[in-house]
Write a structure and sequence with these properties.
It is a single chain. Helices cover 42% and strands 12% of the residues. The protein has a 7-stranded parallel β-sheet. A two-stranded antiparallel sheet has the order 2-3. Helix 5 packs across helix 7, helix 6 packs across helix 7 and helix 7 runs parallel beside helix 8.
Length: 354
């Protein structure tokens, strides 16, 4: 029997890269790839400490890839100093006062070198993670879309600026896109296997589809041309009421969104695209607030919706730092043992005793 490219005979264990490449192309896998990620507030401004936290997490759970989770405002702090609130360590920073408050402020944005400031710190962070983790673990770096960076600068008033001063915003987006493309090039040269490209404005209710096409989609497709040098690029569509159909032509290998509690469902999405999906775990659900048996049930329900091709297990977004170790451990274990049908009963019984 001829095997599809990337497939192995039944019973053969794949390494992480083989497993992910098989999932991306629709070949058979020995088990679905899986990963989990979270923010690290309180230390995420320090590349060394942030890298060590990622390396420790990977050493503990041995996930199939590492989604690097940087300081949330790394891409915007160097253009204009912002007033950021730093709540307790279990929470992410919040924008207290935007740095863009009038049209003239957009004109101040010029392309930045990707090796300095907040951008450069993320390259240091990437290099250090690569040094700390075992060879062969694919790494994908978080990159925010130009329009998402603009929102981090201006806050919710971005929508009104877009409508009232489109020329000013376009000039700013050109500078942001230029910097982002240089940063992606540097990220791939420094050892990343791809990027986790995050959209935070592709939402009905925030923009119209026409506005997103003009101010979001156009810049995204230009930026993502640079990312094509990587082999593992993931599109993350953040929020509720997402413009799913409008971004299906993006040149990426996988999609990630809040599939457990937002449109579209996995079944509905599969009718629209053959791209690989990363999901199945509600980042605010059982992994944080449930018990291991809840996590097992959630993983089982997700896998039962798929044929185990073109799918990876992961959260719809960054999960909470409060997720109990035992829940993460069972998530990892049930993925590892999914092929053993008896393990589901054993794990459910064992988890119920905890």
């Amino acid at each position: 029997m001829m095997l599809m490219s990337g497939e192995k005979k039944a019973g053969m264990k794949m390494n992480k890269k083989e497993r992910i490449k098989a999932a991306l192309t629709g070949a058979k896998v020995d088990r679905p790839p899986a990963a989990l990620w979270m923010h690290y507030p309180g230390i995420d401004r320090d590349p060394e400490k942030l890298a060590q936290a990622h390396a420790d997490f990977q050493a503990k759970y041995d996930f199939d890839f590492i989604k690097l989770t940087p300081f949330e405002y790394y891409s915007s702090v160097d253009w204009n100093r912002q007033a950021l609130g730093l709540p307790p360590q279990t929470e992410s920073p919040v924008l207290l006062r935007p740095s863009i408050v009038k049209p003239a402020d957009w004109a101040k944005l010029k392309p930045l070198p990707p090796t300095g400031g907040g951008w450069g710190q993320q390259l240091q962070f990437l290099r250090r993670v690569k040094e700390l983790v075992q060879p062969g673990v694919p790494l994908i770096q978080t990159v925010y879309s130009p329009l998402t960076v603009a929102k981090k600068l201006a806050g919710a008033q971005l929508a009104s600026t877009l409508r009232e001063n489109p020329k000013a915003l376009h000039r700013a987006l050109e500078a942001i896109a230029d910097t982002t493309m240089q940063y992606i090039e540097a990220t791939l040269k420094n050892g990343a296997d791809g990027i986790f490209y995050a959209l935070d404005c592709a939402n009905h209710g925030f923009l119209t589809t026409e506005e997103f096409a003009t101010f979001g989609h156009w810049y995204d497709t230009e930026v993502l041309k640079v990312a094509s040098a990587g082999w593992f690029n993931v599109l993350h569509i953040h929020g509720q009421g997402i413009m799913f159909d409008e971004v299906l032509d993006y040149p990426v290998q996988a999609l990630n969104w809040h599939d457990s509690h937002a449109y579209p469902s996995i079944a509905h999405a599969r009718r629209k695209t053959d791209l690989c999906f990363i999901g199945g775990l509600d980042e605010t659900g059982s992994i944080v607030n449930g018990v291991p048996s809840d996590v097992i049930a959630e993983v089982a329900a997700f896998l039962n919706q798929t044929d185990l091709r073109r799918v990876m297990l992961g959260p719809g977004c960054a999960t909470s730092t409060n997720a109990p170790d035992k829940n993460i451990g069972f998530f990892r274990l049930v993925v590892e043992r999914f092929a053993d049908k008896n393990i589901w009963r054993y794990l459910s019984a064992e988890s119920a005793s905890l």
